[in-house]
Amino acid sequence: MAQSGNVAAGVDNTFRKKFDREEYLxxxxxxxxxxxxxxxxxxxxxxxxxxKPLKHRDYEVDLESRLGKTQxxxxxxxxxxxxxxxxxxxxxxxxxxxxxxxxxxxxxHQRALGMSMRAERATLEQVQQRFEVLKKRKDTxxxxxxxxxxxxxxxxxxxxxxxxxxxxxxxxxxxxxTAEEEPEIxxxxxxxxxxxxxxxxxx
Length: 203
Ligand SMILES: [Zn+2]
What we know:
Elements: H1 2-8, H2 21-43, E1 52-54, E2 85-87, E3 92-94, H3 97-104, H4 107-112, E4 115-119, H5 124-141, H6 145-181, H7 187-192
Parallel strand pairs: 1-4
Antiparallel strand pairs: 2-3
Bound molecules: zinc ion (ZN).
């Protein structure tokens, strides 16, 4: 103990940092400059490209195809097989449908698709054309109340058919299960093994 004290003797370990106002001000200025430069850089990152205006989707968003299904999820599985919604454009997984919709409507995703978030301002001509298209569609489809009823009816029938198939599947599964649980025992083999059925125990 005394020795270690001796080693330290003669060494000036009383140094303390002294607050040098000028020095720290200078450092702060330098840091601010650096940050400002960094910001400017990140803003003009990459070549400036004119991204296309926002376009409406030409596909249906599938939110329900995996609804009610069971899936084994392992952390080492590829992203597309993880729990949640996978965006193949951005190669990311979002946890639920609401967030998935937010994602595919969001800035990052649209940018990856080469679109800016700006919607094109439609001209009068475009609006008129659109009206024409919709009018024509209405004429050819002849959308009316009877059609509406028919469509509802069709949907109901489809729904019932789906339910019926589901029930049948369930029944089949149950059958298979009971068959597995109660294998038929050949009476001869049972007798050979010494248990001639539970009802007729020999004495
Ligand atoms: Zn995306």
